[in-house]
Amino acid sequence: MVEIKTNENLAAMREAGRVVARALAAVREAAAPGVPLTELDRAAREVLAEAGAGSPFLDYHPEWAPVPFPAVVCVSVNDAIVHGIPDGTRLAPGDLVSADCGALLGGWAGDAAVSFTVGPARPEDTRLIAAAEKALEAGIAAAVVGNRIGDIAHAIGRVCRAAGYGVPDGFGGHGIGRTMHEDPGVPNEGRPGRGMKLRHGMVLAIEPMLIGGGTDDHYTARDGWTIRTLDGSRASHAEHTVAITDEGPRVLTAL
C-alpha cells in the first residue's frame, strides 16, 4: 500500500530530511586517514541526538539478516556496495566511502546516501562517484507526476550502463514515509512507461548503486550485512528522499 502524503506531511518529512543531510555532512567531515569507522557512526549519532531524532537503521532487523544492524549509519568502503557496518577499521588515504543514513523525526523518516574519497581521489573513483550522482539526478528528473516507476528506473540504468558500470540486481530504492521502507520498490533499471503511476504526495528514496568493474555480480560478506562486489572493484552509492509534487520533484534530504 502506498500512502499519499499531504503537503503538511511533506513539510514534516523535509525536517527529517534536513537532519539526515546534517548527519551525512558530519560523517564526511569526520572521515580522514587513520579515523576508525566507528567514529563516523559517532558523528552521525551526535547529529541525531541534537535534533531529537531517532534512527531507522539502529537495531533494524530484516528477516534475512543474522543480527540487528548495530549502527545509525551504513559505511561501505571500497569494494563494499551497501550495508557496511562501521567497525574499528581505520580509513586510509584514497579510500572510497559510501555513507548511508536515516532519521526519524516527528513520526516521519528521511534516508540519503553520499559517496566520497578520503584524501586525494583516484581519477577512476572520481568518475565512478560522478556517475552515481548523475544517475541520481536523472532518476530525480524522471520523478514527475504522470510518469511511472519504470521511467525512474530506466533513467537511472541508462546513465549507469552508458558509463560502463555494473548495477547490482535486487538492490534499489523504495517508498518512504512513516517508516524507512515502504511501497513501492524503485529498481535501478527498468522499462519506461511501466509500473505504478506517480502522483502528487508520493515520496520515494531513489538510490543508484554502481559497480566500477562493469559486472553486476556481488556477494554478502560474512557479517551477513555488507554487500561487496564479486570482482573486488570499487562501488559508489548516491541517494535522496524525493517528494513527487505537482510543481516537480522536491528533494527532501538536500542540505
Automatic annotation (TrEMBL):
Keywords: Aminopeptidase, Hydrolase, Metal-binding, Protease. It is an enzyme of class 3 (hydrolase). This is Methionine aminopeptidase. The keyword Membrane does not apply. Its EC number is 3.4.11.18. Removes the N-terminal methionine from nascent proteins. The N-terminal methionine is often cleaved when the second residue in the primary sequence is small and uncharged (Met-Ala-, Cys, Gly, Pro, Ser, Thr, or Val). Requires deformylation of the N(alpha)-formylated initiator methionine before it can be hydrolyzed. InterPro entries: Creatinase/aminopeptidase-like (IPR036005), Pept_M24 (IPR000994), Pept_M24_MAP (IPR001714), Pept_M24A_MAP1 (IPR002467). CDD domains: MetAP1 (cd01086). One of its GO terms (molecular function) is initiator methionyl aminopeptidase activity. Monomer. A divalent metal cation 1 binds at D100, D111, E239. The keyword Endoplasmic reticulum does not apply. Gene3D superfamilies: Creatinase/methionine aminopeptidase superfamily. Substrate binds at H83, H181. Residues 12-246 form the Peptidase M24 domain. It comes from the Bacteria. It comes from Streptomyces zaomyceticus. The gene is map. A divalent metal cation 2 binds at D111, H174, E207, E239. NCBIfam families: met_pdase_I. Binds 2 divalent metal cations per subunit. Has a high-affinity and a low affinity metal-binding site. The true nature of the physiological cofactor is under debate. The enzyme is active with cobalt, zinc, manganese or divalent iron ions. Most likely, methionine aminopeptidases function as mononuclear Fe(2+)-metalloproteases under physiological conditions, and the catalytically relevant metal-binding site has been assigned to the histidine-containing high-affinity site. It catalyses: Release of N-terminal amino acids, preferentially methionine, from peptides and arylamides. Belongs to the peptidase M24A family. Methionine aminopeptidase type 1 subfamily. Its cofactor is Co(2+); Zn(2+); Mn(2+); Fe(2+).
